[in-house]
Specification:
- It comes from Bacteroides vicugnae.
- This protein is mostly beta strands.
- Helix content is about 0%, strand content about 55%.
- It is built from no helices and 9 strands.
- It has a 5-stranded antiparallel β-sheet, with no helix packed on it. The protein has a 4-stranded antiparallel β-sheet with strand order 3-8-5-6, with no helix packed on it.
- The two termini are about 20 Å apart.
Length: about 110
């Protein structure tokens, strides 16, 4: 994997990923047998359709606002807030406004 950031320095995660008009960008920061850490940016109105993951996942919103559905429950999550998706729970998200998030998935 191509290294996309320096190690051993202070990082401003939101500045490591840009927005693209009408799209979604993802940038994997760490990938290992133990799990993945990935940055995402979403333009307003963009999102991810309902899906499941076999592991618990932590979403940390870095900028903006998203509507996130987990197990059929709708949450509006803002910059500085986080939500955990339980393993195998159906979840989806839509950008209320442009937003960036950090996704951490730890494998069991």
């Amino acid at each position: 994997m191509e290294q996309s950031f320096q190690k051993g320095v202070v990082l401003h995660l939101a500045s490591l990923i840009e927005y693209t008009e009408g799209g979604v960008i993802s940038k994997q920061l760490i990938k290992s047998p133990a799990g993945n850490i990935t940055l995402f940016s979403f333009d307003k109105g963009e999102g991810l359709s309902e899906h499941r993951a076999p592991f618990d996942a932590l979403v940390q919103v870095l900028e903006g606002v998203a509507n996130i559905t987990v197990n059929g429950n709708l949450f509006t999550v803002k910059a500085g807030e986080s939500i955990v998706f339980p393993a195998n729970a159906p979840h989806a998200l839509t950008a209320v406004e442009r937003f960036k998030m950090l996704l951490t998935m730890i494998k069991e």
